[in-house]
Amino acid sequence: MNTTAPKKVLVLCTGNSARSVIAEYLLRSKGRGRFEVFSAGSHPTGRVNPFAVWVLKKHYLIDASAARSKSWNEFRAVKFDFVITVCDNARESCPIWPGQPVIAHWGSPDPAAVEGTDEDKQRAFVNVASQINRRIDLFLALPEEKLTSLQLNQIGQQFAVPGESRLAR
Fold it and tell me: Which of 21, 80, 83, 140 is least buried, going by the fewest C-beta atoms within 10 A?
């Protein structure tokens, strides 16, 4: 029986409508109780992008219908073990978190910024979710007690495409 308390993880983005929600739900599901996972944004949109909920359901069989877009201010007093930013803007404006958590950046393009048909948008969400999923698999493969910011940032670079982490404008 494992008596270790789950590690607390916060995934940050600007709007908390797509990438951070996808990462939150994937890590919560795949971590199987090893992690207590939250997501938030520096400037939350107030709604989760329906394509984020769609990709989690269709490709990972995860129900994210209860997801909500929230501010990182909601978590200011929480002591996290890991803080992971998934967009460049969140990384640049990331506040100081209590307890010296391991901090990493896993930049991905913003699928919510993609314009075009629903098929174009779905393809963007599938690609970003796949990238985040591979990073989470690597994260889960490492022993928790040995995780450092350097190792987590290397995971973020593992599946990056040059220029891909920049937000679409």
Answer: 140
| pTM confidence score | 0.85
Strand order in the sheet with 7-13: 35-41, 7-13, 82-85, 102-105
> Known catalytic residues?
13, 87, 94
In this structure, are residues 40 and 20 in contact, taking their beta carbons and an 8 Å threshold? yes
CA distance linking residue 124 with residue 132, whole number of Å: 12
- Reference 98, options 82, 114, 80; nearest CA is 80
- 3-class secondary structure, 95: coil
Quote the CA–CA distance of 124 and 114 in Å, as a whole number: 7
CA distance 29 to 31: 6
Asked if residue 31 lies in contact with residue 84, where contact means CB atoms within 8 angstroms, the answer is no
What 3-state DSSP class applies to 139?
A: helix
pLDDT at 166: 37
Q: Is the pLDDT of residue 92 over 90?
A: no
Q: Quick one: pLDDT at residue 128?
A: 96
SS3 content of the chain, % helix, strand, coil (to 5): 45, 15, 45
